[in-house]
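Worked example 3. Consider a protein that binds carba-nicotinamide-adenine-dinucleotide.
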Amino acid sequence: MATLKELVDKSSRIVFFGGAGVSTESGIPDFRSQDGLYNQKYDVPPETILSDTYFYAHPEEFYRFYRDKMLPLDAEPNAAHKKLAEWERAGKLLAVVTQNIDGLHQKAGSKRVFELHGSVYRNHCLSCGKSYSAEYIKESTGVPRCSCGGLIKPDVVLYGEQLEEKTILGAIRAISAADLLIVAGTSLTVYPAAGFLQYFEGEHLVLINRDPTPWDGAAELVIHQKVGEVLSAL
Ligand code: CNA
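Given these inputs, the predicted complex is written out as C-alpha cells:
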C-alpha cells in the first residue's frame, strides 16, 4: 500500500484499465469468479447467450437473461469508481478504460471513459436507428420493439462482434500516454481488450485483482485484494 500511494502521489497521467471486478463491490456479479455468472447453472451458457448469433436467432431468450442479469440499473458506484472520479477532477487521471457496460464510472462523475464493450445505457433500433433508454428495455417484455416495428439492440459488444474503432483508438492513445497504468478487477482473458495493455509505454504498471492474472509477472506491483478497499485506503 505504501508503494502504491507513492506511485499515485508522483504520477500525473494515471490511466485505469478495469473490468467486471470493479463493480462487484457495487453488487454486480462478474463472469469468471467463483460466484460469477459463468459458474451459475443455466441451460444455455451465458457466453453463448451473450453472442451475436444467439441474439439474432433467439432474441426472446437473450432478453430474458439480459434483463435479469445485465441491467442492474439501481446499482451505485463504489469506492473505486469514486476515487477514480476524484483523481480525474484533481487532474491526476487521464482516462478510465473499462470493459464494463454498467455506466458506473460516469455515475460516479468520471468524464473521460472509454467503454470498450459499450453500455447498457445506449440502445438503438436496428431498422431506423432510433435511440431507447435502458429503462425502456428493462420495463419492456419479450423482445423490445421500436415504434417502427424494428428490433432494438443494446449498444453492447456481444461475443462475435467488433469493438468500435473510435473507442479503441481513444483507449490506446490514453494507455500509451500514461505514466502509471492501474489494471484492476479483470481476469485479462477477454481479447482484444486485454491486449491493449501492450500499448503501455510508461514506467509503472500496477495490478489490483482478487485472483491471479496472466499479467501478474509483468507488473511492478501486484495486489490480490478488493479494488474498492485498496483505492479507498489511499
Ligand atoms: P471476469 O473475467 O469476470 O474477471 C473479473 C476479475 O475480477 C476476476 O479475476 C476476479 O478475481 C476479479 N475481481 C472480482 N471482484 C473483485 C474486486 N472487488 N476487486 C478486485 N478484483 C476483483 O471479467 P472481465 O472484465 O475480465 O471480463 C470481461 C467481460 C466481463 C467484459 O466483456 C464485461 O463486459 C463483462 N462483464 C461486465 C460487467 C459489468 O459491466 N459490471 C459484469 C459482468 C461481466
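Take a moment to read the result before moving on. The domain at 30-71+120-156 is CATH 3.30.1600.10 (SIR2/SIRT2 'Small Domain'). The beta strands are 14-18, 93-98, 113-115, 118-125, 131-132, 152-156, 180-184, 204-208, 221-223.
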